[in-house]
Each structure stands twice: as structure tokens, then as C-alpha cells.
UniProtKB/TrEMBL annotation:
InterPro entries found in the cross-reference section: BphY/WalK/GraS-like, HATPase_C_sf, HATPase_dom, His_kinase_dom, HisK_dim/P_dom, HisK_dim/P_sf, Sig_transdc_His_kin-like_C
Superkingdom, natural source: Bacteria
SUPFAM superfamilies reported for this sequence: ATPase domain of HSP90 chaperone/DNA topoisomerase II/histidine kinase (SSF55874), Homodimeric domain of signal transducing histidine kinase (SSF47384)
Record protein name field: histidine kinase
Molecular function via GO: phosphorelay response regulator activity; phosphorelay sensor kinase activity; protein kinase activator activity
Length: 238
């Protein structure tokens, strides 16, 4: 592979926007800590009190509530540290195949996009922070499901090792990104125009890049045309 993704030089406007993002992340993460802590605490109490009376499906649902709340707690703490300039990263061995399938399953349930398919067989285990990298995948897969074409969405994830890095490619068969917008997609609060779509905050790709920087990696748009888009993530192996 001949090119490594690099971040363009910052302008004053970009610096101001990044400060706004950091304030937003710090405030939102701080405000979420208390309710998430209570959700996890009450779920744990219910498990202790009702474990003998619940059936298997009910127990699984309650354990899932507790695990998701704990994951969200960990993520918000990481976001607070990221906003403070000292990212809290907890690397561990992560089964990328299982993580991708889990995120995809959650998103297809949430969006109810019919006939969406994921191609990701044989992805390796990587050493990274599962909460932060899971959010990276969530942002990219959400975009693939949001900016879809008239055919059923199809996303392919592939990973290859080169030297001291993993290169992870995420391809979709969506509408592609107009050349006029390709330099702007990582800008804070900028939203790709799509009629009839509920627009988000415009921070998905921006925070994705910030998370990957905290993990020692980066992201870039490798290719996009009317047949779809392909993003490439670089992550250090160790």
C-alpha cells in the first residue's frame, strides 16, 4: 500500500470548531454519566433479586441492559477524557469479526432497513479500545445505511496487515459522495445533503477521526463514485 491517510493542516476555523466539539463532548458525556450509572446499578440489583424467578430470555435481556449501560459508561468516560485533551484509551484484544457483526445487528434492528447485508468473513483480532472502535464502526455503518441507493444496502469490511499497521476498508454500495463535498465530509457540524433524511449533528465522521487519532490511527475516503464509497482506517498493530 502506497499511501497513509494524513490529516490536513488546521485553519483557525477548524480549530474553533474542534473546541466546540470538545465542549459539546465534555458536557454531553458528563450529563450522561449519572443516568447511565443508575441504569447499570438498578439492572444489577434486579439481577440479584430476581435471578431465580426469571426465565432465560428475561435474564438475557436484563444482562444485556446492564452490559450496554456499562459499555456506555465506559464510552462517556473516554469521551470526557478526549474532550479534556488526555484520551482515556483501554486497549484489549478485540475480535473484529464479532464486533462488526454486533454493531451491524444493532443498527439494522434500529433502522429497520430491509435486505441490508454485511460481508465481513474472516476479520482478524486486533488490539484496540473496543468501546471507541465500536463507535467508529457504528458511525461508518450508519452512514452506509443512511446514504443508500435504490438497491438493498450492502457493506463489505476487509482488513489486511502491512508492516506495523492494520488497514481496514469499509465499502458500501450507496449513492457515493459528490466530488464537490469530499474535502468537507470530516468538517465539524457539516452534513452531507440528502433529501428526506433526518439530519444528525454533523459530527459522525469528525468524531470518528478524533477517536482514531486517540487510538493512534486515522481514516480517509479512499474511493467514491456512483457505485458507492470506500473508507480506509489505519490502526497500529501494537
Amino acid at each position: 500500500m502506497s499511501s497513509n491517510p494524513t490529516r490536513p493542516p488546521e485553519t483557525n476555523g477548524a480549530s474553533d470548531s474542534e473546541e466546540r466539539i470538545k465542549r459539546f463532548l465534555a458536557t454531553a458525556s458528563h450529563d450522561l454519566q449519572s443516568p447511565l450509572r443508575h441504569i447499570a446499578m438498578y439492572a444489577e440489583l434486579l439481577l440479584d433479586d430476581l435471578e431465580e424467578t426469571l426465565d432465560g430470555e428475561q435474564l438475557q435481556s436484563l444482562r444485556m441492559i446492564m452490559e450496554k449501560a456499562q459499555t456506555a459508561q465506559r464510552l462517556t468516560k473516554a469521551l470526557m477524557s478526549l474532550a479534556g485533551g488526555t484520551p482515556q484509551v483501554t486497549p484489549e484484544e478485540v475480535d473484529l469479526q464479532a464486533l462488526a457483526e454486533n454493531v451491524w445487528g444493532e443498527l439494522t434492528d434500529e433502522t429497520a432497513v430491509g435486505e441490508a447485508t454485511l460481508e465481513s468473513d474472516g476479520l482478524p483480532s486486533i488490539r484496540t479500545d473496543p468501546a471507541l472502535f465500536g463507535l467508529v464502526l457504528r458511525h461508518l455503518l450508519t452512514n452506509a445505511l443512511t446514504y443508500r441507493s435504490e438497491v438493498p444496502p450492502h457493506v463489505a469490511i476487509a482488513a489486511e496487515r502491512e508492516g506495523t499497521d492494520w488497514f481496514i476498508r469499509i465499502s458500501d454500495n450507496g449513492t457515493g459522495i459528490d466530488p464537490a463535498y469530499r474535502e468537507r465530509i470530516f468538517e465539524p457540524f457539516w452534513k452531507l445533503p440528502k433529501p428526506g433524511t433526518v439530519q444528525g449533528a454533523g459530527l459522525g465522521l469528525t468524531t470518528t477521526r478524533e477517536f482514531l487519532t486517540a487510538l493512534g490511527g486515522d481514516i480517509s475516503l479512499e474511493h467514491s463514485d456512483e457505485s458507492g464509497s470506500r473508507f480506509i482506517i489505519r490502526l497500529p498493530i501494537a
